[in-house]
Predict the 3D structure of the following.
Amino acid sequence: MQKQFIFNAKVIASSVIVAFASTGTASAQALSDVRLGEYIIPGMFGQALQQGLTVPIYLRFVDGDPGERQKVADAAIALKDGKLLIQEVVLNPENKGAVLSAETQAMILSLEEQYFDNSTRIHLTDDAELNLNVQSFVLTLDVTEEALSTAVIPRQFMLGASSVDSVSAVTTYDMGVYQTRVKNGVNNDNNYFNIRNTIGYKEHHFSLDGSVYGVGKGSEQSSEIYRAMYERDVNGNRLALGMFDTWNLQSIASLSALNASKVYGATFGNQSSTKLKSNQYSLTPITIFMPAAGEVHVFRNGRLLSIENFPMGSFEIDTGRLPFGIYDVDVEVMIDGEVRSKTTHRINKAFSNSNADINEVSWEVYGGYVDYDSNAQHLTGGTKETYLLGVSAAVNLPVLSGLSVQTSNYAFDNHFVNETAVNLTVFDYGSVGWQGLISEKGRYRNIVNATAMIPNGYGSVWVSKEKSNIKGDLGIYDSDTYSFGGTLNFNKFIDKGGSLTFSRTVDNRVNTRSNNFEYATSLYSGRRGTMSVRAGIQRYQYGNDTPTDNRKYISLGFSIPLSNWISVGLSSDNGDMNLDLSANKTFDDGPISSIGINTSKQLRDKTGRNSDFSTNAYAMFDTKYSAGTVSLSRPDSQRLNGNLTAGGSIAFGGGKVVPSGKREESGVIIQTNMTGGASLSAQVNGRNYKLTGKNNFIPLAPYAEYKVELMNDKNSMDSVNIVKGKTQNVTLYPGNVAVYRPEVKQLVTVFGRLTTEQGEALANAQIKNHIGKTVTDSSGAFSMDVDKRYPTISLVDDSQQCDVELDLAKAQGVLWVGDLDCGVGTQLAKAKAVKPVEPKLEEAVEAAPAQVVAAAKPIQISEAKALPLGKPVEVSEQAVVPVAKPIDLSMNADPRRYVPKALAPAAVVEQPMTVLATPMAEAASLVLQRNVIGAAKAATNGTHYYELTQKPAAESQPYVQTMDDTVAYLSEQIRLTTEFSDVSLRQGDACTAILKPEGQPNQEWANAVSCQSHLNVALNKE
């Protein structure tokens, strides 16, 4: 039975438009109906289909809910020779639902010029079929579970491009100084200074490492450069050139035969720091199939651990939210409130998992020239110049809880060496590992180690064996050792049973034996303190002819948390008894982070080897510029020791040099420009840093992405408003220093009272400042926020205007300013009553928006105001007013009068500004200020009306303004010390301002500047 096609309204409309656009008119050619399966398509729609139509492809599970579908692609279909075909298929790149298998995707993408059968279907595979719904003109891809692929959570992702596109550098350093004073003996002192400089440009960097020893000690002073290396590590590949040590040469596997040799050469491989890895997911992923949208519940021992929602498809469960460890979980798939399936899986999240690069082979090739240090037992030492060529590789395999294999193969100085290491983790039961080395002439080394965990937390045991046979000049010692040990947890049997640790080590090469037994337990732990006991036996034997060294010790300790930790202990060591006392205190704020002291008093001396009294004191400091430790000790009555260690970093970026007490190879400079003791807090990836002063450097590890967010410091009394740039994302490579310039306002809430010179209250007076306005109450009292950068408030009424500058340098948060006298000394200008706007003025500015005319506050400028013709006046900014769209206010002006002011390329006024005009002496100066703009409106009778508005910050620059509203923008702030009496106007496209610089009376500057109107202006010297 034939079916007449019933059209979707949107499809009809779009199709008809396409048809008419392509044919001109519907009557241009005969249109006949088209049969598609059981449907008849009207001729007009068929004509549209001949031009092509794009329709969505929705994914639908064959055994699922027919109404549930996901868009996976778009297809272009067309009518050709009376049949429908697919012209092109484009997969949806933003699909976050089910994932098609690689085979299914390939089949869909290969459908170009593929015809539908008479049932409007295209058979792809046994598990996938494409169907066209002719009524809705929607394609559905009907699939079984086998046609889908699991949406796997990525274990690693590639680091993006650097966000720093300029040259910057970070220098890190650490230093140490010690000195020993010996009574009636020889004093001793020494020092060291290590420095590492990293210069970066985008993803490139150059590193230079060196050390200086014995500074100031004459012949004992020495220095050495350890590394001078160019490196580019990007997109998963690392290239390095220069001078390396063996670790910087490659970091995949061991190169132990090279010792501490220096290498001059190159290395390249895919062992890259830009592959950001995560070990928060289970080593073996847990996948589930959802026949329809629903929930997945994860249980452990009957306890619900997580709930996730999924659409239809195959997905991996997010195990990152589950606890670390190796354990079994039950997974339930819930659809429409019913349990559709229940399975058991094992979670394998060991803390040491390196599962981000499972089945991926890491490799590096390297070579060059080497200073080989062959300091083995067979030689007297020294270096040899020779070649080096090698390759290293590693892979992690998902065997049990993880199998890692590493190998290095390298040749140098007629030696060929292979080093291989294998480590296998066996769930939560333990691990086993082997490290081997083999070289020519039968040289070898084998190291085997294993650990085992006793079930239920009763303890652990370990064993290790090393045997090597090294001949000739290969720089490795012979060895023949074994050791074993373990820990037994008696707390599993009895409360406070403690633990016993034991170990035995035998070195057959040097014929030594050692045995260690130690027992420790906590006797008491509570809010009053803790009490513990520790006892042990150590036995050492060096060779067959030496007696055994037996050491026995026992100590009893008691710690008291009296806001500071105080610990008292009594110890006995081979009959020597000592009373030990220690105390320490930590500080949350300030340059000193902690201080402590340890003392020991001998109560009984059996061996005669110990001091009667010894003490040690230390202080740890952490400042904005450096961090370290100062220590002073008195081991006995004959000696006094002292040492200092310190370190930090210095950043060079954005024209700034900023130090820090922390050390990393990259970071962020934050320029807050704060004054006084104000502080902010910067949260970087969840970690807080305190910001003080104008510039702060936060050292951060390279090869990482960071989110930097500014917020108020909860421990600061200052009120800070972060206007712009509260959050910034940065990507850092070594040497990168990102410069972050937020707009920050330090606000002070000012309370006070406004009075006249006679002390009378100024009630209901309007007060303005840089960021807002307020009105005094009946007693003249007021409160308002003031920006510390602009500490001025202004009173404006019909009779007077005055400014009061406040001293806010030391203010924090709130300040009471008392009575403010708005009298002599604060009064800057007085304005006469405003004349009404004459009709001719309204006609002259009829093109301006009504808001401009309505908000204008005209001030008359005439001879009566002691402003003679040709004399400049001073213009001061009193408020901030945003503006919007530009208007042309060019008009004929009296060329004899020159009133310098500013003009913006916009004049939609949201808030009027006040302009203070005062006469200037003959040689008075004019300051061209930033961010002040004005618009002049000429009227008859020589009267000029004008207002000021705020110039947009992005266009902020110095300027000079003439009466005809032409603007000359200058390249920098200039102070003029001359007067101008003549203004000439001429037609053209450019403006020229002839300016006389301060301090150079015989020189003039000619600057080509841009104009905002159609006129040119030339300011000629009088």
Q: What stands out?
A: The first strand starts at residue 3 and ends at 4. The radius of gyration is 41 Å.
